[in-house]
Amino acid sequence: MANNDRLLVQILLLALLGAGVWVMAPFISALLWGAILAFASWPLMRLLTRALGGRETLAAALLTTVWILLVALPLVWLGFNLADHIRDATAFVRDVQVDGLPDAPAWLGGIPLVGERLVAWWDSVDQQGAALMASVKPYLGQVGNWLLARSAQIGGGVLELTLSLVFVFFFYRDGPRLAAFVLRLLQRLIGERAEYYLDLVAGTVQRVVNGVIGTAAAQGLLAMIGFLIAGVPGAIVLGLVTFMLSLIPMGPPLAWIPATAWLVWQGEYGMAVFLGVWGTFVISGVDNVLKPYLISRGGNLPLVIVLLGVFGGLIAFGFIGLFIGPTLLAVAYSLLLDWSRSAGQPPVAR
To answer: Of 233, 193, 240, 290, nearest to 77 (Cα)?
Structure first.
């Protein structure tokens, strides 16, 4: 009878746990982002708590307000600026449709071997512009629907970001108690190795934050400097766009290549060459140097494990996979190491 009662209690506990996960499922991504943000900035939280005489709630509120000012408000400002640039791009397309393309630049015809063909192609595109727009027009509605769907996703992302900034306050305020609770759970599950695996997860997340976010910030700053020197309008906005694009593989060229093409279109050939060289060797080149250095710094995991986790996690889980992927691979790699070492030990004599 006692065994039946114990089994019933276990079933009820599992059902209760499943119901809790089901209720929390819509907020898991925002919770993860809040936890990652709180963990990455925890040294600031400790410093501010000491400065305020140990008042954790006040320190958490102040630091959360700082994140709202640094993250949420710039994103709103970026959205309004992007809307202005989209209107400018729409006006440009309308002008091209009515007036056609401008005359081909003189340097285009001077290119050896292919210059005349490029000028002829330019003129044919100009002459066929109306027909081209007529053929493309049936697809504009589909493009509009796609943009509308992407806008809905962006709106969902902004809502998720807002929720994560709300959750980060509670992670700041209750961080030590949550860490102690997680440690006790791990000790019940895996025993004395609990603290090691908790440190492993924390270290992996910290390295990815330093490598991915740090490299993206450096690329965004360098891109903004290049845009300002080249005289590209909206340099600050494009710098922020470069920062966000730097979080995905091969993202920065999506920002500086169109800017370079715009300079060529305006006849600023010298600045176009400068921005092309700056983008290739500085903006995109820093990713090959800074990211591996920051990710490999302060850890004993193979760099390839972390990099595979970053890219694989991004494909499997989306943007949050930047942190989930390397954490899963790091834990799996360490578990396999522990298992191989214990399997190689001789059995204990009884």
So the answer is: 240
DSSP secondary-structure letter at 103?
P
The distance from CA 350 to its chain's CA centroid, rounded to whole angstroms, is: 55
Q: Is 172 exposed, middle or buried (0-12, 13-18, 19+ CB in 10 A)?
A: buried
| Distance from C-alpha of 250 to C-alpha of 221, rounded to nearest angstrom | 17
Look at residues 288, 215, 275 and name the one whose alpha carbon lies nearest to residue 246: 215
Mean pLDDT, residues 219-239: 88
Q: What is the DSSP code (8-state) at residue 266?
A: T
How many Cα atoms are found within 13 Å in the side-chain-facing hemisphere of 167? 20
Measured between alpha carbons, how far is 174 from 179 in angstroms, rounded to an integer? 9
Give dist(CA 344, CA 350) in Å, integer.
Answer: 18
Query: pLDDT tens for residues 162-220?
Result: 778 888 888 888 888 888 888 888 787 777 777 877 777 777 777 777 787 788 888 98
Other C-beta atoms closer than 10 Å to the C-beta of 250 total 10
Q: DSSP character for 71?
A: I
